[in-house]
Amino acid sequence: MKHVEGSGSILKSRLARGMFLLVAFGAVSICGAAVPGFTIDTEIPAGNAIVNSIEGDTVSIRQDLRDTKGEWFYWAFRVKGAAGRTVRFDFRKPDGTALDIVGVRGPVVSTDGGKTFSYPLDGKATTCGFTYTFAPDENETLFYECHPYVRADWDAFVARHAADAAKGVFAVETLCRSRAGAEVPRVRAGCLSGEPKHRFMFTARHHCSETTASWVFEGIVDAFLADDDLGAWLRANVELMGVPFVDYDGVQAGDQGKNRKPHDHNRDYSEFIYPETKALTEWIGEHAQGRLDAFIDLHCPWIRGDYNEFVYATRKDPKITPPTAQEDRFSEILEKIQSGALRYKAANDLPFGKAWNKGVNFAQGWSSVIWACHNVKEPKVCRAMEFPFANANGAVVTPEKCRTFGRDIALALRVLIDER
Q: Are residues 164 and 90 in the same domain?
């Protein structure tokens, strides 16, 4: 293990790609400074953090950018052995510059090993840090920038639908092997016997740290399998095609994903350097013969501020992909029929040329949506949608609320189809 001198003593060991173990020893004194008797590590699902220093009960910490160009915000770490302490976590660069990478409701925290998460510091954290008091019996605590979602969560979701798989209305297959050699899942649901009247495709995690999108994805699949009128109609008429983790390796490793060098997965639809993007386009061409009624790519934005704290769709360059009446109508329908707490407003959609949605944003290559607009035959809806991490028009973002919104997307597509 590499020994790093600081105000305290921190040992850092590379365990695996994206995994660091950061240990602070108690009951010793180095360089005249007492070292706190707790440990910080990233040996958790999608762990990501680098400790700069520990001085008393103050931790200077930062996100691990790895191969990301510029700054991004994802981090996740575990603290063990801090029961009864009050510890300050400051997010800073090595030179001491503050990093504004704490979410609008503070960290998502778990004290039961990742079974449940909550926002105990909502309204108490700052943009660059938080102070947390560990309960007297709290010996292991997980801190995440956002609700985590990794392959184990997907596997649990699949297991809950084992009966649907047995009925022949739900199938999990392999899209391809990732660059690390892992099997990347793809899913089909709904009308799987015979030729469906319609096909919808949904993708998530082109940027691997955008976890909220995965809960929305679950809600969409749930809608196809539900024992209600919507589920029955979808199973009779529509085949869902989906890829839950486009950047599969990044999801598992806890990478940022956004602005990955030389370009990230959602700028790879010109070069296809990642196996997932190439396999996704080939699946559309071979299985769907290039025809989809809807292609929707699920994303998450930045962590706070305008266009980061409400649900919205990004509109495309009208010179490349002219807007259609059906796109506008889908937005109108979704706003009208939505039933959950994450309220969507069509007026909040981000026009091309405003904020970050400009041509320069795609200089590195086509996004999945741009590719689909050029290659999918006459889609009625072809868009990216953004789902906030913590706050959506005042509502606390939770997995269940995201799932409800996923169902609303499926319902809005049904209404749009029925209007023809």
A: no
Distances (CA, A) of 182 to 68, 124, 151, 245: 22, 40, 11, 12
Q: Which domain holds residue 347?
A: 151-418
Are 140 and 275 found together in one domain? no
CATH code of residue 6: 2.60.40.3120
Contact 204, 246 (CB under 8 A): yes
Are 335 and 241 spatial neighbours (Cβ–Cβ below 8 Å)? no
Contact 21, 64 (CB under 8 A): no
Please report which residue ranges of 62-145 form alpha helices under DSSP H: none
The C-alpha atoms of residue 403 and residue 48 are separated, in whole angstroms, by 26
In the chain, the number of structural domains is 2
DSSP 8-state code for residue 208:
T
Q: Name the token pair of 410.
A: 């499926």
- Alpha-carbon distance of 294 to 189, in angstroms, equals 15
- Residues comprising the chain, all counted: 420
In 244-380, the DSSP E strands lie at 294-299, 312-314
Tell me the per-residue pLDDT of 3-32, one tens digit each, with 9 for 90 and over. Answer: 222 233 232 322 333 344 444 433 222 233
Q: Helix H segments across 150-269?
A: 151-160, 162-167, 212-225, 229-237, 248-253
Contact 104, 145 (CB under 8 A): no
Domain co-membership, 137 together with 210: no
Please give the structure tokens belonging to residue 161.
């639908």
Residues 240 and 133 in one domain: no
DSSP 2: E
CA pair distance 41, 182, nearest whole angstrom: 25
Q: Which residues, at least 6 apart from 387, have a Cβ–Cβ distance to it below 8 Å?
A: 212, 213, 216, 298, 299, 300, 311, 342, 397, 402, 405
Tell me which residues of the chain have a pLDDT lower than 50: 1-35
- pLDDT, tens digit, for every residue of 354-363? 777 787 778 8
Cβ(67)–Cβ(261) under 8 Å?
Answer: yes
The 10s digit of each residue's pLDDT in 326-356 is 999 999 999 999 999 999 999 999 888 877 7
User: What whole-number distance in Å separates Cα of residue 187 and Cα of residue 280?
Assistant: 12
Query: CA–CA separation, 380 vs 384, rounded Å?
Result: 14
